[in-house]
Automatic annotation (TrEMBL):
Lineage: Bacteria, Bacillati, Actinomycetota, Actinomycetes, Kitasatosporales
SUPFAM superfamilies, per the entry: MFS general substrate transporter
Keyword check for Membrane: yes
The species this protein was found in: Streptomyces sp. 900105755
Gene3D superfamilies: MFS general substrate transporter like domains, Multidrug resistance protein D
Pfam families according to UniProt: MFS_1
Topology versus the membrane: Multi-pass membrane protein
Protein name: MFS transporter
Residue spans crossing the bilayer: 24-48, 54-77, 89-108, 114-136, 148-170, 176-198, 210-230, 236-256, 277-301, 313-331, 343-363, 375-395, 407-429, 449-472
Domain Major facilitator superfamily (MFS) profile: 23-476
Top-rank taxon: Bacteria
Keywords from the named record: Antibiotic resistance, Cell membrane, Membrane, Transmembrane, Transmembrane helix, Transport
Localization per Swiss-Prot or TrEMBL: Cell membrane
Length: 477
């Protein structure tokens, strides 16, 4: 790619003797399992609450217990994958995730379920952190890499909706325990396939980057950051700002440590790559927009349009189907013809336009006129933007740092989604409460709160356009 500022990831020599398409299928299967799990749990939450007696606040920890270690450990496991071998990290993550899934499914108490979810989050981080690094090693040629990233991104988009349907079906037909137990056969099959199909990738050696203090600092900083975001609604402003300051202090201490360590966990020169840092910054804004749309959009359909859970799930179905079809059919070819930068910018503009259009949805709106058109516009934009954005983020890393770059990209995705969800939901709730206190009726006040959230999300998406235009524009030779 002409836009890279670092040395592109080189292929791992042994992988040339292995079936690359089968390897891609294995990587997609491993990632799909973690994506399904995140959405499958959301649908089953009421059943879990009834069975185990969770309070409303306690129930949130069924999700948070997974999300905090997942988001906090991605960077660490990405770097460890570079040191011990990415295949080892991937397969170990599959084993840990599968075992923890069985423990979740067999849990009979609140503490057992939350503890198993935390272990599951660690296993998911091990698997997810190295996937992109392995993918770019398998497909070093730009055109093939673009196609592989498009396939991987499409699997993720479709898997998010598939998890919602599987969660409802398994919970209704059997019990909530099976949303976790279903991972046992899937995890075993994925592990066996990974052992047999994926090429061995010898790492650089643990002594080349075994920075224990640095690992503790960055893991603590990231886990605390995710905790501050996902738990912001349960604490007062003073406690939230104090924890945020502590997370920032840990991050600063980690940066100082990396600048002085003989074998740093994170080579700071990696962050000097304009392409890598810019792509991660754009992703934070893009994912914040899209996560906000999914959450606030679902609430709009339920609380304003009066949809039930099943009808809401069906209403969202066109978006991932469109994303998957466009990613598989057009994304790689468009990137090859027009370049990653132009396709990314066009996709971000479509997302911004779709969100701006959605911000006009009235209290007496309809799905066909006010929700479906902007949703399809955003789906097309996301399908155009995400594969080239992923390619640009990974192109700024050398082969020795591919796992670290993969972990960093996944980390910014978690942080962006958490920030968008927390900020936009808080804005919507505050606006609605203010209108209700002023005497407005419930449905119009609720709709206005959601419109405000959509308007802010459109501004965030416009910020992604501006950042991409300023930072990711290819430099002239």
């Amino acid at each position: 790619m002409s836009t890279t500022t670092g040395t592109p990831a080189a292929p791992v020599t042994p992988s040339r003797t292995y079936p690359r398409r089968a390897s891609l299928a294995v990587l997609c299967a491993g990632a799909l399992m973690t994506i399904l799990d995140g959405n499958i749990v959301t649908v089953a939450m009421p059943a879990v609450q009834r069975d185990l007696g969770f309070s409303g606040a306690g129930l949130a920890w069924v999700v948070n217990a997974y999300l905090i270690p997942f988001g906090g450990l991605l960077l660490l496991f990405g770097r460890l994958g570079d040191l011990v071998g990415r295949k080892r990290m991937f397969t170990a993550g599959l084993v840990l995730f599968t075992a923890a899934s069985v423990a979740c499914g067999l849990a009979t108490g609140q503490g057992a379920l939350i503890a198993a979810r935390a272990v599951q989050g660690a296993g998911g981080a091990m698997t997810s952190a190295v996937v992109l690094g392995m993918l770019v090693s398998l497909f070093p040629e730009p055109r093939e890499q673009a196609r592989a990233i498009a396939v991987f991104s499409a699997v993720g988009a479709v898997g998010a909706t598939l998890g919602t349907f599987l969660g409802g079906a398994l919970t209704q037909a059997l019990s909530w325990h099976w949303i976790f137990l279903i991972n046992l056969p899937i995890g075993l099959a994925a592990w066996l396939a990974a052992v047999r199909i994926l090429a061995p990738e010898p790492g650089a050696g643990i002594r080349r980057g075994a920075d224990g203090p640095g690992a503790a600092l960055v893991t603590g900083a990231l886990m605390l950051t995710v905790y501050v975001i996902v738990g912001s609604g349960d604490r007062g402003p003073a406690a939230t700002w104090l924890l945020a300051a502590l997370a920032l202090a840990l991050l600063v201490a980690f940066t100082v440590r990396q600048a002085r360590a003989e074998h740093p966990l994170l080579r700071l020169r990696l962050l000097r790559s304009r392409t890598l840092s810019g792509a991660n910054g754009v992703q934070v804004l893009l994912i914040a927009t899209m996560y906000g749309f999914q959450f606030i959009g679902a609430l709009y359909m339920q609380r304003v349009l009066g949809y039930d859970e099943l009808r809401t799930g069906l209403a969202f179905l066109p978006a991932p189907l469109a994303v998957g079809a466009l990613m598989l059919g057009l994304s790689a070819r468009a990137t090859a013809r027009f370049g990653a930068y132009r396709v990314l910018l066009a996709g971000l503009v479509l997302v911004t336009a779709g969100m701006a259009l959605l911000s006009r949805a009235p209290a007496d709106g309809s799905y066909a006129a006010d929700v479906l058109p902007p949703m399809l516009l955003m789906a097309a934009g996301f399908a155009a933007a995400m594969p080239p954005l992923t390619g640009l983020a990974m192109a700024g890393a050398r082969e020795a740092d591919a796992g670290l770059a993969s972990g960093l990209f996944n980390t910014t995705q978690v942080v962006g989604g958490s920030l968008g969800l927390a900020a936009l939901s808080t804005l919507a709730a505050s606006r609605t409460d203010g209108l209700l206190h002023a005497g407005a009726e419930l449905v119009p006040a609720t709709a206005e709160g959601y419109r405000l959230a959509f308007r802010v999300a459109a501004v965030i998406a416009a910020g992604a356009v501006a950042l991409a235009a300023a930072v990711l524009r290819p430099r002239r030779a």
